[in-house]
Design brief:
With about 180 residues, this protein is mainly α. The chain is about 70% helix and about 0% strand.
Length: about 180
Amino acid sequence: MAAVAAMGLALACTLSTPARADDYTDVGQLIRSGKLVEAQAKADAYLAGKPRDPQMRFLKGVIQTEAGKTDDAIVTLNALTQEYPELPEPYNNLAALYAGQNQYDKARTALEMAIRINPSYATAHENLGDVYAKLASQSYSKALQLDSNNKLAGQKLVLLKEVLTPPAKPTKGGAAKPAPAASK
């Protein structure tokens, strides 16, 4: 689910006014620089004065995600979906968190909601495809577990694992290292 993991910094909520854009830009730059403690402090200071601001709350969820505080990020993003159900981005990011916890049904539901809100949200469509592929992989694995002679399910599973394996990353010399083998 490379696309799901990559979307964490999409920062797609664009509900700001130009006067507040600097705060969002500053927090976004701190996140991209890996200065999560500073980003969190700046976001919290901003939210102390404007606690309902959806874009800064979204950024707070991104910070929590990047800091490995998945449960906190889920709470933050769920609150956004409740208070601002018209925004698809929190649903998309929730899906990434759920997928990271192997909760693919919850991820699917969140992505379907993002797409219902914004049918042209390409990232959510791609992420939904990844979730469906992961669900299919689980079903083919179960089919093989129940019937080890099911060659067709085995072939489909191999193909899906190839699709779900991230591409190899180039080394310093420019040649790509082989991708790690997919786990069962």
